[in-house]
Amino acid sequence: MSETKAKRTCLECEAPLSGRRDQKFCGDYCRNTFNNRLNEDSSNYMRRINNILRKNRRILAKLNPDGKKTVDGITMAEEGFNFHYYTNIYTTKKGSQYIFCYDQGYLKLDDNQYMLVIKQDYVR
To answer: Which branch of life, at top level (predicted)?
Structure first.
């Protein structure tokens, strides 16, 4: 009765594996390297978008230190705010739409004015 065992090797460096049967990598370095290479195309795109969102949030927080303030759209643009990127929109019962970058948001008013707000607990 000869039973042939398939030699298990690390998916990254192909070193022989010993230990758990479901083990795929010889260590954290190989696991991270493998997954980073696997996801690098989508990661670069997502990293760029996340950087824009974080920058937008920082700008809103900087312009609105007290929790509620009206600012000019030109001021936001001069700071580098990108109006095309946000995390969610909250529509009130009256139909007003607050646009948020994480917890920092704004409501477009008349004459290129924006009311900056911080998301409240009741806003989901």
So the answer is: Bacteria
